[in-house]
Design goal:
Blueprint: H1 2-15, H2 18-40, E1 45-58, E2 69-74, E3 81-83, H3 87-95, E4 102-108, E5 113-119, E6 122-125, H4 127-173, E7 202-203, H5 206-209, H6 217-224, E8 229-236, E9 239-246, E10 251-256, E11 262-268, E12 274-275, H7 285-291, E13 296-297, E14 306-309, E15 315-320, E16 323-330
Antiparallel strand pairs: 1-2, 1-4, 2-3, 4-5, 5-6, 7-12, 8-9, 9-10, 10-11, 11-16, 13-14, 14-15, 15-16
Helix pairs in contact: 1-2, 2-4
Length: 331
């Protein structure tokens, strides 16, 4: 169990693979519940009595660490009985048994393991102590599994809010004021040849940044320079998104590996950015719906935020904590 916990913590700290940690958490929780249930179920155990005919140590299950199992053969029982524990405990129990002893052995049926051994009136392996140990281990698995699950599903909310706050503070510090003469306001800014064909006017337009959908990353770099920061998003199937954040311009460009890393999405974060001459960033959700009544909710509302879209248009407007945080247009 200990290596399994260390392995899961290693992935949580260094790789942060959410799916792997969720599987680990669920497995530990289920194993803990099963183990805990076993200790309360009398039908999981049976008593076997007989005379010891042979005692062996089996190294096959853990030969590398030389941690053997104790195998007990009884004259009146066809199948051998196995006891597995830490090496010292196995040796201790095996050293107190000898051929010809009349024993009573308590066996747990689900995993077919020895939980208690009595020789005459001498209890050399306490059944009650084994049950108490199992309850403790099961409780730990349940709590640790639940802890990992909570970290993934509630911790991401905290991280999300911290990152959002950080981004907002950075953008507020470096606020860019787009003067009217600097903005190329053209109704057909989303031209058919760019692959989207929107009937919207976006300020500042793509022409303002001298970029177009379908451009490769090296071309974008020649137009806008290197991004302030980069991040990747795994979208499954071996594909991922390469996201470039330009803090000065308050935009994020997204390149899709499935599309040969060509520009496929641009997000706007400046409160000077407009949709149909409406500055929507910073509006409350109610104000947004009043100004753009054709908007439709694209996904379920949750604490992390949700998106609105316009039917037939390649635009998504992101609402967080009841306020428009950003919007994106895509190819």
């Amino acid at each position: 169990m200990t290596p399994f916990i260390i392995f899961s913590l290693f992935f949580l700290i260094f790789y942060r693979e959410k799916e792997f940690i969720i599987v680990c958490a669920m497995l530990m929780f289920v194993l803990g519940v099963i183990s805990y249930t076993i200790t309360f179920s009398e039908i999981s155990f049976r008593d076997i009595s007989g005379i010891v005919s042979e005692i062996q140590y089996d190294y096959s299950g853990d030969s590398r660490r030389r941690n053997p199992s104790l195998v007990i053969f009884l004259e009146s029982h066809l199948e051998p009985l196995k006891y597995t524990a830490e090496n010292d405990m196995v040796r201790n129990v095996g050293g107190r048994l000898k051929k010809g002893d009349k024993v009573k052995i308590v066996v747990e049926d689900i995993f077919d393991d020895i939980w208690g051994i009595t020789v005459g009136t001498d209890e050399i392996l306490s059944f009650s102590h084994k049950k108490a140990e199992t309850k403790y281990g099961a409780s730990f698995l349940i709590m640790y599994g639940a802890f990992l699950y909570i970290i993934i599903f509630y911790g991401k909310n905290i991280v999300f809010r911290i990152n959002r706050l950080k981004t907002k503070l950075l953008r507020k510090r470096d606020d860019v004021r787009f003067e009217p003469e600097e903005i190329s306001s053209i109704d057909d800014v989303m031209e058919k040849r760019n692959g989207i064909g929107l009937n919207l006017k976006i300020n500042p337009s793509l022409n303002h940044y001298n970029v177009k959908f379908g451009m490769k990353r090296n071309k974008i770099t020649s137009k806008l320079g290197k991004p302030s920061s980069r991040r990747t998003i795994n979208i499954g199937g071996g594909d991922y998104l390469d996201c470039w954040d330009y803090e000065y311009h308050k935009i994020e460009l997204v390149f899709d590996s499935d599309n040969d890393f060509r520009l496929s999405q641009i997000s706007f974060f400046s409160n000077k950015a407009e949709v149909n001459d409406i500055g929507i960033i910073g509006l409350t959700e109610k104000e947004l719906l009043e100004k753009l009544p054709r908007l439709r909710l694209l996904d379920e509302k949750d604490e992390c935020g949700y998106n609105y879209g316009l039917p037939g248009e390649n635009i998504q407007i992101y609402v967080s904590e009841g306020t428009v945080d950003s919007f994106c247009i895509y190819d």
